[in-house]
Structure formats: C-alpha cells, structure tokens
Write a structure and sequence with these properties.
Strand order of the largest sheet: 1-2-3-4-7-8-9-14
Largest sheet: 8 strands, parallel, barrel
Helix content: 40-55%
Number of strands: 14
CATH class: Alpha Beta
CATH topology: TIM Barrel
Number of helices: 13
Length: about 375
C-alpha cells in the first residue's frame, strides 16, 4: 500500500520549546501553517481539540477555505454535541471542503479536561458512550429513512439527515485509544486506528490486538502512528538538536513559562502509560526512537521523536510500514518551519522507499 502523511496546524505558534504568546487566534499564522503543509506534500492536516481553545470545527472550516488539495482531519470528542447534530455538521463540512474531511474520534484522556466542558463520565464510561455515538453517527450518514434510537447515552425519535457525506460510504473515522475499553470500540468502528510513537515491539502488539478485534466484526483497519521527527544534515547534528530541544523544554517548564495546556495538563490515558513504558527502556529505543521529551513531560501527548538525517528517519519509518502502518502523523518542535522542512526530503524520500519496496514485491 502507498504511504500517507498527516501534519497538524494550530491557531498560534506553540510547542514544548515555544510558549504560547499573544492572542489565542492568529489567523495569518494558521493560514500560512495550513498552506505550508499543502505545499510540502502532506496528504492531510489535523486540527486538534482542547477544552479551553478555539473551536475546532470553525478552525478547520478556515483551513478548508484556505487550501484546495490537502485533506483534513478534525479532532472530535463525543459527549458535548448530540451525534445526530454532529452527523449533519460533519456531512455539511464534507461538502463545503469538497469531500476532504476525516474525523478523529478522541474519547478523552483526562478527567480534569473533560470536566471543563461538563463531562463527568469516567474513562471506561466515555468509551462506552463513544461506541454508541459512532454507531449513531454512521447510521445518520447512511440511513435512507428516519429512525428511532434508545440507548444508554442517547435517545431520539425519527432522526434523519438530508445532507449525506460526499465520501462514501461515509467520512473516514480515525480513532485513538489503547486501553482495554478502547480496543473493542476501535474494532467495531475505526477505519484508521491511530497510535502514538511507540517502539516497534509495542506497535506489533497493539496493531495485532486491533486487527484481531476488527476481524471479529468482519472488518479490516488501517493504521497511523505519530512522531516528532528531528532532522539535520548529519546524525550527530540531529542528536545535538534533540538535546537542545530537551534542554529548552526543561528550562521553560522549570521557569513557569506560559505553556500551552497540552503540555502541562494531567494525563491518564493508556497511550501515555505505553509511551512511558517505552521511555523506561532508555531515551533511545530501536534505531532512532527518542523518548526523552515523553519522559520529561509525562507523555501527555504524542511526544516521541525519530532522530537522524532525512534518509535515516525515512528508513526508520519503513520499519513501521513493514508492520502495516501506512499513515504517519509528523509534526515538529518548530512547528511551521519543520513542516516545510519535512517536505524537502523526508516525505519524498519515504515515498520513494515505499515505492521501491512495492516494486520489489511486484517483480
């Protein structure tokens, strides 16, 4: 299979080494960031969700209007909007974006963050709600006549949407969650299952579990994984850059700088525990997986890096491709600048290596 690349845009500049500054929305930065991904050859771009940040649906609508080719991925948390309304909103957005939308379902990894928006369900209850939510969402997208529903979390009568997604049978569903409560939901609903940047052994284990769960429902699932590539002209320079990033991360966290909530809030997810388990094996795992930022920050987000030259990192990505991962979500510590840099060598070189691999198999 071919390989896909996803980037991520935000409404202002921020990362572990760039504290939030200025207003929450810098429209010019957002649109330049989105165009940079399109120009760099990314296939899709993610708009994240935070409980105290700009609205993700309105933000992704801005990104859609400012771009023409790149596909979109909206981070979306069940529980705050009725699934019948969300189905119509997302189908409408799919039309206005020219059939470019994907939705990334996140059930929530922090009780504190969920409660900011009034959600008091516990971890496993959130996944049970997500299961019902996705069942309804997909049915509204595909139903040819009104239907009733009465479940543990939602009840309605004669739900129907005149607007259906442009994409058939429906908008692609990305799904994140590695806990025992999450895996069955992924098996029933995910089109693309998203992992954080784990070790090769961890990925082999988790993708196997998800495949087995999907097979129980007669389904197949594709896989995406997230990394923070750190590139330089030589391997030594890349590792030196990684150490500078770690030093600056520590300095800012110790100095009580105005860090974005994504880098400071508590994290209770199984994904975080898995990243910390990788970090327990050392700061350098497998060929080039660097876990130091994950360990420093408590693994509150996709924070592991692949470090090296573009050629070396592309070869490391191929190790994951050989495990069945066909989508890579990559974003940098210097967000806009790194997105542009990835388009110069890393993305085309990885595509070239995959093409060579496929040609060899076909021969």
């Amino acid at each position: 299979m071919s390989v896909n690349f996803i980037g991520m845009v935000t409404t202002h500049k921020n990362s572990e080494i760039h504290p939030s500054a200025g207003p929450a929305i810098d429209t010019d930065y957002l649109l330049r960031f989105a165009k940079a991904h399109e120009d760099a050859g990314f296939d899709r771009v993610l708009v994240p969700y935070h409980s105290n940040g700009p609205d993700a649906i309105l933000t992704i609508a801005q990104v859609a209007a400012a771009t023409s080719r790149i596909k979109l991925m909206l981070a979306h948390r069940p529980g705050f909007v009725s699934p019948t309304l969300a189905a119509r909103q997302l189908a409408t957005l799919d039309h206005f974006s020219g059939g470019r939308l994907g939705v990334h379902i996140i059930s929530g990894g922090s009780d504190i963050e969920q409660r900011r928006d009034g959600d008091y369900l516990d971890h496993d209850q959130r996944y049970a709600r997500t299961d019902e939510y996705l069942e309804i969402l997909r049915r509204v997208w595909t139903a040819e006549k009104p239907f009733d529903h009465e479940g543990a979390h939602y009840r309605f009568e004669q739900a129907f949407s005149e607007v259906k997604p442009v994409q058939k049978p429906h908008i692609p569903i990305f799904f994140g969650g590695a806990s025992d409560a999450a895996i069955p939901v992924a098996g029933r609903h995910a089109d693309i299952y998203a992992l954080w940047g784990e070790s090769l052994d961890q990925v082999r284990d988790l993708t196997g579990r998800v495949r087995a769960e999907a097979a129980r429902h007669g389904r197949k699932v594709e896989f995406s994984i997230s990394f923070r590539p750190i590139l330089a002209d030589t391997e030594d320079q890349a590792w030196e850059r990684a150490e500078r990033i770690l030093e600056e991360t520590r300095r800012l966290r110790a100095g009580n700088a105005r860090l974005h909530p994504a880098y400071t809030g508590p994290q209770q997810s199984e994904g975080a525990r898995r990243l910390l388990a990788a970090a327990d094996k050392g700061t350098r795992v497998d060929k080039r997986l660097w876990t130091a930022i994950a360990k420093e920050t408590g693994a509150r987000y996709n924070s592991t890096a692949l470090v090296g030259t573009p050629e070396q990192v592309a070869e490391a990505l191929l190790d994951y491709y050989d495990l069945g991962v066909t989508t890579f979500l990559i974003r940098g510590f210097d967000p806009l600048e790194d997105a542009t840099d990835y388009g110069r060598e890393l993305i085309p070189r990885t595509r070239e290596l995959v093409a060579q691999r496929l040609a060899k198999k076909a021969a």
